[in-house]
Write a structure and sequence with these properties.
5-stranded antiparallel sheet, alpha+beta, single chain, disordered N terminus, elongated, 154 residues
């Protein structure tokens, strides 16, 4: 019996955290490992993180980052903010940069459902949010009072 496998080439480039975010993560990882008695240099932790993001080494990952503006969010990131004026905590489960480069299509999975209705006699809870946001984390869609429907704290 043979097992057939095949791969598909991704059409969208992977979302890579910013250089500052990776370096900060390397610093935290290095401190955490040192607390357990495992001492690595900063460059060794950068190499580990590059491999975690499926790059051969830090130089390859750094080149892939280029001089591009940093992504405001990454998949799997926990975020907080306001949705229709209600506070929330959620995980980013989908993220796509739109063609203009200034906006992102995002899907959030809320930790706790948010009531999207303001009437006391009626409720409608939402656990998942789909929206288009700018680099500042605010949606382009507004509520009737002119505030963004979604605001993510970056």
């Amino acid at each position: 019996m043979s097992i057939q496998t095949h791969t598909t080439k991704a059409t969208n480039p992977p979302i890579i955290p910013s250089r500052e975010a990776i370096k900060a993560q390397a610093k935290r990882l290095r401190a955490s490992l040192a607390a357990e008695g495992n001492f690595l240099s900063h460059s060794e932790t950068l190499e580990l993180l590059a491999r975690q993001h499926a790059f051969r080494d830090w130089n390859t990952m750094s080149a892939a980052m280029g001089n591009r503006p940093c992504q405001p969010l990454v998949l799997g990131q926990t975020v907080t903010g306001l949705y229709l004026g209600q506070p929330f905590k959620a995980v980013v489960i989908a993220l796509a940069q739109l063609n203009d480069g200034a906006r992102y299509r995002i899907t959030l999975n809320l930790d706790e459902p948010v009531d999207v209705v303001t009437f006391e006699s009626f409720s409608a809870f939402r656990k998942r949010i789909n929206a288009t946001i700018g680099r500042d984390g605010s949606s382009w869609e507004k509520t009737s009072n002119g505030l963004p429907q979604l605001t993510i704290k970056l």
